[in-house]
Amino acid sequence: MIAIDQVSKSFVSRVGGSVFKRGGKRIVHAVQGVSLHAPNGRITGLLGPNGAGKTTTLRMLGGLFAPDAGHIAVDGIAVAERPRAALARMGLLGDAHGLYPRLSARENIIYFGRLQGMEQDAANARAVELARLLDMGAILDRRAEGFSQGERMKTALARALVHDPANIVLDEPTNGLDVLATRALREALRHLKSPAGGGKCIVFSTHIMQEVELLCEHVVVVARGRSVAEGTVEQLLDQAGASGFEDAFVKLAFADAREQEEQVAA
Ligand SMILES: Nc1ncnc2c1ncn2[C@@H]1O[C@H](COP(=O)(O)OP(=O)(O)OP(=O)(O)O)[C@@H](O)[C@H]1O
């Protein structure tokens, strides 16, 4: 179970300047009040346009940096206070897959398992089990060097799942995947959240509405660093008064921007 409560994060970003002259500084409010509650046995979508703050939120969830405000807990463990314990309960698939190119897929998976404190045999058995689930038998003993995008994603996902975490967090996992690889990933995630797959808590971030419609039972819409709406796809359609999800998403995610434009025009 993952609980993100009213987190915010700003960055200091350099603007302007040149080789000879230092530029100024600007504060970027990347996240300014995102909340998300993801129970076990459910796929929860974090849906937002480019730059909405999804990756920043998930990086805080993964303990990469602390939020300026707000609170994040994984199975009741506060990430800020006990990051290692919280991380041990999570499998994170970030935007950079960072595999070791000289290691085979199996070795990449086992290495990660060892880092999580697993015995060699247990990690190997798990690598074999995950290779079956993710249909990666043909690449298990190939070096990661030269892997296609889909092969890299599968290996990185298997690596994230090696210690059988109760919580799975995926940041835009279908980026660069073809239709078959995307379908295979969807199937694997549906299995993992089912009782037979362990009833995992899955958080899935994307800017693609169709993915959310096909996969997520609950969706949190983020825009300009804030959670602006949440519910099932049907509830979001109702809330936006729209008949299609694309219209609903545009209405919900860009409502403030439209109001501001209307105020400026008036
Ligand atoms: N380290 C940083 N320094 C300065 N600004 C940052 C930093 N990280 C993120 N931002 C800014 O914060 C905002 C949110 O970025 P973030 O990557 O979280 O969005 P996102 O929803 O994941 O977008 P996308 O779908 O395009 O990946 C953006 O405006 C981004 O430029």
Describe this structure in words.
The chain contains 10 helices and 10 strands. By secondary structure, it is an alpha/beta fold. It folds into 2 domains: 188 residues, P-loop containing nucleotide triphosphate hydrolases (Rossmann fold); 68 residues, no CATH class. A 6-stranded mixed sheet has the order 6-7-8-3-9-10, sandwiched between helices. It has a 4-stranded antiparallel sheet with strand order 2-1-4-5. A hairpin with a 2-residue loop joins strand 4 and strand 5. The chain is globular and about 55 Å long. The protein starts with a strand and ends with a helix. The model has no long low-confidence stretch (mean pLDDT 90). The chain binds adenosine-5'-triphosphate. Adenosine-5'-triphosphate binds next to strand 1, strand 2 and helix 1.
Unique bound compounds: adenosine-5'-triphosphate
CATH topology of the largest domain: Rossmann fold
Please give the alpha-carbon distance between the first and last residues. Answer: 46 Å
| Parts with pLDDT < 50 across at least 5 consecutive residues | none
- Overall form: globular
Strand portion, in percent? Answer: 25-35%
Q: Estimate nothing, just give the exact number of structural domains.
A: 2
Give average pLDDT, whole number: 90
Strand order across the biggest sheet? 6-7-8-3-9-10
Order of helices and strands: EEEHEEHEHHHEHEHEEHHH
CATH superfamily of the largest domain: P-loop containing nucleotide triphosphate hydrolases
Radius of gyration: 20 Å
Q: Which CATH class of the largest domain is shown?
A: Alpha Beta
Class from helix and strand fractions: alpha/beta
Instruction: Please give the largest β-sheet.
Output: 6 strands, mixed
What is the number of E strands?
Answer: 10
The CATH architecture of the largest domain can be named as 3-Layer(aba) Sandwich
Protein name: ATP-binding cassette domain-containing protein
InterPro entries: AAA+_ATPase, ABC_transporter-like_ATP-bd, ABC_transporter_ATP-binding, P-loop_NTPase
GO molecular function, one term: ATP binding
Pfam family, one: ABC_tran
